[in-house]
Amino acid sequence: MSEVGSDWRFLDGIAMAWFDARSLTEGAALAGRILEVSPDISVDLRPTGVRVRLSTSGDAEAVSAAAGELGLAANPAGLQQVSVVFASANPSALSRFWQGVLDYAPAEGGALADPLWRDPGLRIRQSTELRPLRNRIHVDVVRPARAVQQANLGEASGPFGVRHSDPDGNEVDLVPGAELDEETETADWQAVFSAMACYRVTSPAQQHALATAASALADGTGFPLLVDLRPGLVILDSGKDQWEDDAHGLGLNFTDLAADLQTAARELGASADPGLPRFTQLFLDAADVGAVRAFWAAALGYTPDTRVGVSDIYDPRRLNPVMVFQELDASETDRRRQRNRIHFELAVPADLAQQRIAEAVSAGGRVRGESEDRWRVADPEGNEIVIVSGV
Fold first, then answer.
1. Which CB contacts under 8 angstroms, 24+ apart, belong to 98-102?
2. Mean pLDDT per segment of 10 residues, for the chain of length 391 residues?
3. pLDDT per residue over 236-286, tens digit each?
């Protein structure tokens, strides 16, 4: 850690920091300074702060100095990274399937990674253990309708006609998105459970100008917009369901804000890329939804959605995937006893790992294995998470 300073932590091999901020506009000011350091740094603007992930740790000192000059303090408690892990006897076949589903890129050690650094990474581990029954965990992916068609996964099944299975039987609901609205004023926007628009930019100055304009528009309405900056790209995202009128309690029609954001982007010369929006969430079947949901909220440090009839839990900083729960028939005892072929990994800073494990155990979890920097914890029904200590 002495190489990058106390503001930073290494999670999944990536140097990252979270700087508290009081508004998107305040965060956008830091983003502008970061882009002067390097246009290759990944920056996530949120109403409460900024997450920064470095392509090279050599930029850490300059970013910390910029944050300090703006009066923004680092808060490592805001850092964590969720990944999805598959156990398989045939990793290469699974890799091909999921690469088509998600449009991910190959990464180190046979893993798959989101090229946009937004959705969770996938790891596929060799295993000979037979687990023939359906998992209690699956993944939901929402992409633009054309992208779903081009994935060419064959005929879908399931109650909504969107379910596909990989060669091992692991399931994904690949859902086609749609235009946010029929009006041309929001033509750049896709509804993919979130409302999302992705804009290509040609310079860091243009990127900063769009981030600043979007932040000011969102702050002006009080809307908690997600603004993510990647090399040559600005992603504007409502967050899951937040574009719906009853989700945020602001008395705001989100399509009006989306239209204003689109106008700002086009006036700055940014070009929408309608094929990029993607939303991924994690789905878990449980016989006792309340108990299992409480465990995962504690283990992940997530916040329960309070809307009636909604089982979601979500990262309070909207940086990691939403998790959703649905009821499993308690009579499916064999399926409940079988270990899933999918589990989750949570990387947290080393100084927070023991606290997170204790919170998971206090919420009904059981530690089933541990090594120097990894703890395998099961929820009350045996679904597993591996908590990994970062640096």
1. 98/122, 98/124, 98/166, 98/172, 100/151, 100/152, 100/153, 101/141, 101/151, 101/153, 101/164, 101/172, 101/174, 102/141, 102/278, 102/280
2. 81 96 98 97 98 94 98 95 97 96 94 97 95 96 96 94 97 97 95 98 98 98 97 97 82 94 98 97 97 98 94 98 95 93 97 96 98 96 97 85
3. 999 999 998 777 778 889 999 999 999 999 999 999 999 999 999 999 999
Q: What is the DSSP string of 99-118?
A: HHHHT-EE-GGG-EE-TTS-
Distance CA 27, CA 268 (A): 20
Cβ-proximal residues to 48 (8 Å cutoff; 6+ apart), any chain? 20, 21, 22, 317
Render the burial of 42-56: b for 16+ CB within 10 Å, e for the rest: bbbbbbbbbbbbbee
How far, in Å, CA of 358 to CA of 121, rounded? Answer: 25
The upper half-sphere exposure of residue 19, i.e. CA atoms within 13 Å in the direction of its Cβ, equals: 29
The structure tokens listed for 243 are: 């574009």
- Per-residue pLDDT tens over the stretch 37-68: 999 999 999 999 999 999 888 999 999 999 99
